[in-house]
Every structure is written in structure tokens, then in C-alpha cells.
């Protein structure tokens, strides 16, 4: 099952598998952060449910556990973060215009090559359409 969730600034460190494609436009980090600060509700990621080597365990307090820092923490204290899978795709959008000209705009929509042809881009577009109509 694929999870569609809001993009966070930490996702910008994990999206290499999506942007390493010849046909995908890559922007600098400032561009992504600018969009994230202005239109956070129109930025989404698709995430697989599988844990990866890049997943760091969290403590019950919500921060990185001692095991993530190199020490061993008790197993009962370690929690898996809710954002624990591999990023499959992302969408950046913005809202612009005035009055009856108000509309949503897709700035970037990309799905990692290994996850294409599964309808994931359609799922992201439906999310943008639903969110921009609010």
C-alpha cells in the first residue's frame, strides 16, 4: 500500500532515487524550500511501506534514539518513525490567480523509474486537484 503524505524538508534528503532520471528536472534546495514555505499543502510525496537502510529509529520522545547515534538503546525504547519507507514520487504545486481565475498549478511531478506505470502520478494529480479546490 502506498502512502500519500505531505512533503517535509527531510524528504529533500531522500529523493535522489526519483531525481536521478534523465527526464526529471532537478531544482536547487532553495527552490524546494521556497515552495514548501509558501504552499506546503500542495506538496506531496508517495512513500512505499518498506523499511530501508536509510531509516533511523526514533525514541519514544520522538527524537533519534541512542542506537541511531551509534550506541545501543533498549529495544522497548525504539520506535519506527511514521515516514519510514522509500520515496516513490513527489509533486510540487502552487495556487495562483484571483477570483474566478484562481487555480492550482503543477510545478513538478515525478515518479521514480522503478515505480512508473502504476497510476501513482494520477494519484498525485487527484490529490492536487482536491486540495486546490478548497
TrEMBL record:
It catalyses: N-terminal L-methionyl-L-glutamyl-[protein] + acetyl-CoA = N-terminal N(alpha)-acetyl-L-methionyl-L-glutamyl-[protein] + CoA + H(+); N-terminal L-methionyl-L-asparaginyl-[protein] + acetyl-CoA = N-terminal N(alpha)-acetyl-L-methionyl-L-asparaginyl-[protein] + CoA + H(+); N-terminal L-methionyl-L-aspartyl-[protein] + acetyl-CoA = N-terminal N(alpha)-acetyl-L-methionyl-L-aspartyl-[protein] + CoA + H(+); N-terminal L-methionyl-L-glutaminyl-[protein] + acetyl-CoA = N-terminal N(alpha)-acetyl-L-methionyl-L-glutaminyl-[protein] + CoA + H(+). Keywords: Acyltransferase, Transferase. Residues 2-134 form the N-acetyltransferase domain. Gene3D superfamilies: 3.40.630.30. GO terms for molecular function: protein N-terminal-methionine acetyltransferase activity. InterPro entries: Acyl_CoA_acyltransferase, GNAT_dom, NatB_acetyltransferase_subunit. Its EC number is 2.3.1.254. One of its GO terms (cellular component) is NatB complex. This is N-alpha-acetyltransferase 20. Component of the N-terminal acetyltransferase B (NatB) complex which is composed of NAA20 and NAA25. It comes from Fasciola hepatica (Liver fluke). Catalytic subunit of the NatB complex which catalyzes acetylation of the N-terminal methionine residues of peptides beginning with Met-Asp, Met-Glu, Met-Asn and Met-Gln. Proteins with cell cycle functions are overrepresented in the pool of NatB substrates. Required for maintaining the structure and function of actomyosin fibers and for proper cellular migration. PANTHER family: N-ALPHA-ACETYLTRANSFERASE 20 (PTHR45910). It holds the Pfam family Acetyltransf_1. It comes from the Eukaryota. Belongs to the acetyltransferase family. ARD1 subfamily. It is an enzyme of class 2 (transferase).
Amino acid at each position: 500500500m502506498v502512502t500519500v503524505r505531505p512533503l517535509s524538508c527531510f524528504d529533500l534528503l531522500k529523493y535522489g532515487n526519483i531525481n536521478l532520471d534523465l527526464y526529471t528536472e532537478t531544482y536547487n534546495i532553495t527552490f524546494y524550500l521556497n515552495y514548501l514555505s509558501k504552499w506546503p499543502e500542495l506538496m506531496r510525496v508517495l512513500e512505499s511501506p518498506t523499511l530501508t537502510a536509510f531509516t533511523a529509529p526514533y525514541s519514544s520522545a520522538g527524537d533519534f534514539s541512542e542506537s541511531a547515534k551509534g550506541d545501543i538503546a533498549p529495544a522497548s525504547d525504539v520506535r519506527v518513525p511514521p515516514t519510514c519507507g522509500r520515496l516513490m514520487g513527489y509533486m510540487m504545486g502552487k495556487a495562483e490567480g484571483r477570483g474566478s481565475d484562481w487555480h492550482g498549478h503543477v510545478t513538478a511531478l515525478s515518479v521514480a523509474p522503478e515505480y512508473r506505470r502504476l497510476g501513482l502520478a494520477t494519484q498525485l494529480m487527484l490529490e492536487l486537484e482536491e486540495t486546490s479546490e478548497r
